[in-house]
Write a structure and sequence with these properties.
This protein has helices at 6-18, 26-57, 69-84, 104-120, 168-174, 180-189, and strands at residues 65-68, 89-94, 99-102, 127-134, 140-146. It is of the alpha+beta class and 202 residues long.
Length: 202
């Protein structure tokens, strides 16, 4: 059984009014459009908060299984291109056989967060690479690399804090919730992995 939340009720009415925009005065039509946009952002924020809460409380592991990393990265690549509206170059690079054991849903969420951030915060025409790299100690890592403008290293220690933003104006414009990297951090902790960020202003 499903129940209506305040946001779903509000979103439903706004969608109905949005279908009637052509019959409304321009000023009112514009206001409804802005309310629709902000309602979607609030729903994204609620969804991210719920996911982060679950990651912090639930020990996880029940859905861990062998995963083919290459196919997952290729799927994320296509999603990133769709988000970019084909305005970025996104590619997958596998240096060796790419397999691991984990939660596909959680790992997909974490890597997608990184890839989508690369799309949102780099200019059109930027190169984004999703890369699987074998390390000398027998482990491996997944890299999300881009040639965007970069950030000052002073921000790096705080990037996984909830709602921390390097550029508040730009983050608001791109529709981010400020929780993406916190989600990434907790997903990786549940997989005995860690997030490492390297960046320099260009």
């Amino acid at each position: 059984m499903s129940c209506a939340t305040p946001l779903t009720v509000l979103s439903g009415y706004l969608e109905t009014y949005g279908d009637l925009k052509e019959m409304l005065p321009p000023r009112l039509s514009k206001g409804i459009g802005q309310m629709e946009e902000q309602t979607k952002r609030m729903q994204s924020l609620v969804n991210d908060l719920l996911l982060l809460s679950r990651l912090e409380i639930d020990r996880g592991g029940e859905d861990h299984q062998p995963l083919e990393v290459g196919s997952m990265l290729e799927s994320i690549r296509r999603d990133a291109l769709a988000l970019s509206n084909q305005q970025h170059s996104v590619q997958v690079a596998l240096e060796c056989e790419a397999r691991l054991v984990g939660s596909e849903q959680e790992l997909r969420s974490a890597i997608s967060n990184l890839a989508f951030n690369a799309v949102r915060y780099t200019p059109e025409g930027s190169q984004i690479t999703l890369r699987w790299v074998a390390l000398s100690n027998g482990s491996a890592c997944i890299e999300v690399d881009d040639d965007g403008e970069g950030i000052d290293p002073v921000h790096i220690p705080r990037l996984t804090e909830r709602f921390y933003r390097v550029d508040k104006g730009r983050s608001t414009a791109t529709g981010g919730t400020g929780l993406g990297l916190a989600i990434v951090k907790h997903v990786l902790l549940r997989h005995d992995a860690q997030l490492q960020v390297e960046s320099l202003p260009r």
